[in-house]
Write a structure and sequence with these properties.
Shape of chain B: elongated
Strand content of chain B: 25-35%
CATH topology of the largest domain in chain A: Aminopeptidase
Strand order of the largest sheet of chain B: 3-5-1-8
Order of helices and strands of chain B: HEEHEEEHEEE
Radius of gyration of chain B: 17 Å
CATH class of the largest domain in chain A: Alpha Beta
Structural class of chain A: alpha+beta
Shape of chain A: globular
CATH architecture of the largest domain in chain A: 3-Layer(aba) Sandwich
Number of strands of chain B: 8
Distance between the termini of chain A: 52 Å
Radius of gyration of chain A: 25 Å
Structural class of chain B: alpha+beta
Largest interface: A-B, 69 and 55 residues
Helix content of chain B: 25-40%
Largest sheet of chain A: 5 strands, mixed
Oligomer: heterodimer
CATH class of chain B: Alpha Beta
Distance between the termini of chain B: 30 Å
Largest sheet of chain B: 4 strands, antiparallel
Chain lengths: ~575, ~140
């Protein structure tokens, strides 16, 4: 799509210009090529040993069969249709819990999360006042059996591999009468849907039986065709598969559980424990609840206690970034005064509209100047309280706004620009009726929720997670050099990075094409199963480099990191 | 000025038709906005249907006489970290007669279109543009209820 016309925007009187931050944040611009990591020889040797280990190769071979590819595909379809809005992930978590025990070969004691959201050992089981519905399973390592094993308050070291299970859409759980998402199929020859009504009107959709298993009918056959890209899909009778979570990020998360089941089946033995988690709350108002539980992260303090003693983190939603975009999020309520007898008064919807309209005119540094730190915002959601019976005025309205930047200074300046606009909207509405701000006669404001995704700019690209992530890729031929990109992501990784835990990201997904992430028209088309296997091989290699590994020949690849995870606050129990 | 002009026209209409035979008319309108939406950061730069709806409300304030309308709802979007693909303004209109009521409806329809146009202009998109295959603009529809 077209970018904003910057020159014209600069001349627009209504535009709010955030020029001051540009000068503040231009120090040390990243290079195009990125920064090379210095990978220790021990990690290079470990990658070679692990990637070529007979057990690991057997796992990869096993996953390379047509039957395994089909099983992965079916599992994805069966999980992605379970709605999982942020903070309402309990249905998807429950299905993963069920499959872990009934289908994937784990004992109940190996499932580390409970249906009520509790994880034993963490000091953070409630985030933003709500339970956290993570789904985690452990591949036990040998370390705790050592006589000299070290631990943190009873927690032996562990490596975390996680992908989130929450999805932006639907906004809330559907009614019990129609509880699952309808997975719609549309030929490429037709235009991408423009409205939710058009999406709902698509006649072709996948079917599922009473047990939740996908029905392998002609629609399934069409949806299951594999393509290399959109062009081939269009030429070869491919379809857009519309379902929230196709791109963000259930294929990768689902395959994480395929991988952990395969590790169990092939008796992969790490030294440190490896936890595989489907995490809650990465999207929307989830406020990173899942990783906050795992890392004991307190957003008010900005510190994490790392109560589970995690020594390295691997996320499954991305591409190897080491810098993390920070964000501020606000939910503000505009409360209308009690109506005077018969007369008009300030309106909550109009006060909120005034605020949104002001925010809508903000230009960020990256809007205005090429090369400025990428800074973004949106009013993502708004709603009004229904008028009471017999009245027509909405008692209150609330908006939710998101602000992000790759650097703290422009993010803080964005906040300084936008935050006063909440009151400005209320004041503008009060002024229309001659009402004073801050009185019972006027619109008043209330902060309903504040979300923080802490930014992180890496001081060094050299840490155990990055080394393992890069060298596993080099070993398996998907990378040619140990370069770390200069980009930034906004991921679950923000929390471990700000707790001092080394982190790196991969993907376990393979899509031929897709678009519409976070929108009602999110879709994808199936990509090559071999790509998934290659990615599982890499992630497994990387995780075992850090955790250590009992190789098939009886030797032990020692962990690449010590047994005590970092933390920025001590656990308070 | 626009508000004043409309108020005068509204008053003239009321005077010209101000007999008991032309009873007061009221009704509800839904003003809906549809855009592509998407990731708040990854797709930043796309139009927001909610931003367009808010722009339209301000234009409605400017275009309609005080007391002729009441906005009962403003809603849209589905997540704080997604550009809103939908926006909705619900409102009630009250006019002295049918002709004045239709004038109000026309003014709301115009304000809605202008709100959408302002959002499209701010983000530099025009009718016919596509973003990842979907219509790139925000569009408005006004319907009675």
């Amino acid at each position: 799509m077209k970018r904003p016309e910057h020159a014209r925007a600069l001349l627009t009187a209504a535009t709010i210009v955030l020029t001051s931050v540009v000068a503040l944040t231009q120090a040390a611009p990243p290079t195009q090529a990125g920064t090379p990591a210095t990978i220790p020889a021990s990690v290079v040797a470990a990658a070679e040993k692990i990637a070529n280990d007979p057990q690991v190769l057997a796992l990869a071979r096993d996953q390379s069969t047509d039957a395994a590819a089909k099983a992965r595909w079916n599992q994805f379809l069966e999980l992605v249709r379970i709605p999982s809005p942020p903070r309402q992930e309990h249905l998807k978590a429950a299905e993963i819990h069920r499959r872990l025990v009934e289908d994937w070969g784990f004992s109940r004691s190996e499932v580390m999360t409970r249906a009520d959201g509790i994880i034993a050992g963490t000091d953070t089981n409630i985030v933003d006042g709500l339970p956290v519905y993570n789904a985690c399973v452990v591949i036990k390592g040998s370390y705790s059996g050592r006589a000299d094993a070290q631990h943190y308050q009873g927690q032996f070291p562990k490596v975390l591999v996680e992908g989130h299970i929450d999805v932006v859409n639907p906004e809330v759980l559907p009614p019990a009468s129609d509880p699952f998402i309808h997975i719609k199929l549309q030929p490429y020859g037709q235009a991408v849907v423009a409205t939710p009504a058009e999406l709902a009107a698509i006649p072709d959709e996948l079917s599922f039986d009473a047990r939740g298993r996908v029905v392998e009918n002609d629609k399934y056959a069409t949806a299951s065709k594999v393509f290399a890209n959109a062009k081939e899909a269009e030429a070869g009778g491919g379809v857009r598969i519309y379902v929230p979570g196709y791109g963000d990020m259930m294929p990768s998360t689902s395959n994480a559980f395929v991988l952990v089941a395969a590790m169990k089946k092939h008796n992969i033995k790490p030294v440190y424990d490896i936890w595989i988690c489907g995490t809650a709350g990465e999207e929307g108002k989830g406020n990173l609840a899942g990783v906050k539980q795992l890392y004991g992260f307190d957003q008010k303090l900005g510190t994490g206690s790392n109560p589970l003693n995690i020594v390295a983190n691997f996320g499954l939603e991305g591409g190897g970034t080491v810098n993390f975009v920070g964000s501020y999020r606000f939910e503000m309520k505009f409360k209308a005064p009690v109506p005077r007898g018969g007369g008009n008064g300030p309106s909550a919807p109009e006060a909120m509209a005034a605020a949104i309209a002001k925010i809508a005119d903000v230009k960020t540094p990256s809007d205005l100047q090429e090369g400025a730190p990428r800074t973004t915002y949106t009013v993502g959601r708004a709603s009004c309280e229904p008028p009471p019976v017999g009245r027509t005025a909405a008692p209150s309205c609330s908006l939710e706004v998101d602000m992000r930047s790759t650097r703290k200074e422009p993010l803080d300046d964005m906040r300084k620009t936008i935050e006063p606009m909440f009151q400005a909207g209320a004041s503008a509405e009060n002024a229309r009726y001659g009402r004073k701000d801050g009185t019972a006669e006027g619109i008043t404001l209330e902060l309903m929720w504040y979300g923080l995704r802490p930014a992180f700019v890496a001081e060094s690209v050299d840490n155990v997670a990055v080394h393992a992530g890069l060298q596993s890729g080099i070993q398996l031929g998907v990378l040619t050099s140990p370069m770390v990109g200069t980009g930034s992501g906004s991921l679950n990784d923000n929390v471990p990075a700000n707790t001092g835990i080394p982190t790196y990201q991969f993907s376990l997904a393979s899509s031929a094409a897709g678009a519409g992430g976070h929108a009602f028209w999110e879709w994808g088309t199936r990509g090559a199963p071999a790509t998934e296997v290659a990615r599982m091989h890499r992630v497994l290699t990387a995780a075992l480099i850090v955790s250590g590994f009992h190789a098939a020949d009886g030797t032990v690849v020692q962990p690449s990191v010590g047994p005590m995870g970092k933390r920025t606050r001590e656990v308070a129990r | 000025m626009k508000n004043l002009v409309f108020s005068l026209a509204f008053a003239v209409c009321v005077v010209a038709t101000g007999t008991p035979a032309f009873a007061q008319q009221s009704g509800g309108l839904k003003v809906e906005f549809q855009g592509p939406g998407s990731h708040s950061s990854g797709a930043y730069g796309r139009v927001s249907a909610l931003h367009a709806a808010a722009r339209a409300v301000i234009l409605i304030q400017q275009a309609l006489p005080s007391g002729s309308y009441q906005i009962t709802n403003l809603t849209g979007g589905n997540s704080v970290n997604a550009i809103a693909s939908d926006g909705l303004v619900e409102m009630k209109l009250t006019a002295a007669n049918a002709a004045a009521y239709q004038a109000l409806v026309a003014a709301v329809t115009k304000a809605a279109a202008e709100g959408a146009a302002a959002e499209n202009a701010f983000r530099g998109v025009k009718a016919g543009d596509l973003t990842s295959g979907a219509p790139a603009t925000v569009r408005s529809v006004v319907t009675p209820f």
